[in-house]
Design brief:
By secondary structure, this protein is of the alpha/beta class. Helices cover 39% and strands 15% of the residues. The chain is globular, with a radius of gyration of 20 Å.
């Protein structure tokens, strides 16, 4: 109908009306905080601030359990773990050590909070002395197939420790199928895989690499992470992972990739995660600290936009703050 019969503002007149017709829901159960776990002796600090990620810390195992209790109390369903080992080598062998930092952390969390979902990142970059996501050939390039074999070992070790969901982030070709086969062969047929399917070679990863000590010592990761210019390729990557046995797929980063969250959601018909990465978090924190924007309003707008784009799960460093703000709104 023509104006003035049609007045879109009628349903925006009050908070109650806006809430009544709101199309997109954001709640704590949609959020997953990434947590950095350190390996070391009792003399190591329990919590070590990360300068480039204000409000985020490297945690000892005991501090991790304390943090997980806080997370669970906020209604957040799970956490994603990233390990910081005491020693590294060319293969990243500590990544599949049954007594490694992630394996120990998973067991501690499942003892303390059996109902909290524990997601584990599966990659070698934090464990290799060269910082790449796989083992290297003599010419310095990452050996895809040899790396996939090791990643499968890592995944099995995480499942054996009690991880609820395995999340390979390396971007090696064929790793989802290899991990699915390895898990099934070891009896972990019910352990789901969240594949970092569309992971881009992004400028927004810097603070994470600082936090995890995972920056490459030479070159870059453009030979295996995706070109940010490619959208159709992202969908193809996701569909390949679906065919190999992924139970969920991920788009990473999130803010500049809402179009691909939507495209992957439509094409894969699987639950989709979006990773609101470290650089995206740090930008908001820096702008808020400078007084350029309202942090609470900006964070909730960002997270809601990712849900609107189609993300079922959002991995975000804002998770705890957002959960507290959402509780205040209810």
């Amino acid at each position: 109908m023509a104006f003035p019969q049609t007045r879109m503002r009628r349903l925006r007149a009050s908070a109650s009306l806006r809430g009544l017709v709101r199309e997109t829901e954001l709640r704590p159960g949609h959020l997953v905080p990434p947590l950095f776990v350190t390996e070391g002796d009792s003399a190591s600090p329990a919590r070590e601030p990360i300068v480039s990620l204000p409000g985020v810390e490297r945690l000892s195992i005991s501090a991790l359990v304390d943090e997980a209790h806080e997370v669970a109390a906020l209604g957040i369903a799970g956490v994603m773990l990233f390990g910081i080992p005491a020693a590294k080598d060319a293969e990243g062998s500590s990544a599949w050590d049954e007594e490694g930092v992630i394996q120990t952390a998973v067991r501690a969390l499942k003892r303390a909070l059996p109902d909290l979902l524990v997601l584990t990142d599966v990659c070698l970059c934090e464990y290799t002395d060269h910082g790449h996501c796989g083992v290297l050939r003599e010419d310095g390039a990452v050996d895809n197939d040899a790396s996939v074999e090791l990643l499968a070992r890592v995944a099995v070790s995480h499942a054996r420790a009690g991880a609820d969901l395995i999340a390979p982030s390396d971007m090696m070709d064929g790793r989802v199928g290899a991990i699915r086969s390895a898990l099934d062969e070891e009896g972990f047929t019910d352990t789901p895989i969240l594949a970092y399917s569309a992971k881009f070679a992004s400028a927004f990863y810097g603070p994470f690499r600082d936090a995890a000590g995972s920056a490459p010592s030479f070159g870059d990761r453009r030979g295996y992470q995706m070109d940010p210019a490619n959208g159709r390729e992202a969908v193809r990557e996701a569909l390949l992972d679906v065919a190999e046995g992924a139970d969920m797929v991920m788009v990473k980063p999130a803010l500049a990739y809402g179009d691909l969250i939507r495209a992957v959601k439509r094409s894969s018909r699987l639950p989709v995660a979006a990773y609101n990465v470290s650089g995206e978090y740090a930008m908001v924190k820096a702008a808020a600290a400078a007084g350029y924007l309202d942090e609470r309003a900006a964070v909730l707008e960002i997270l809601t936009s990712l849900r609107r784009a189609g993300a079922d799960v959002i991995v975000t460093y804002h998770a705890k703050d957002a959960a507290q703000w959402l509780a205040q709104q209810s």
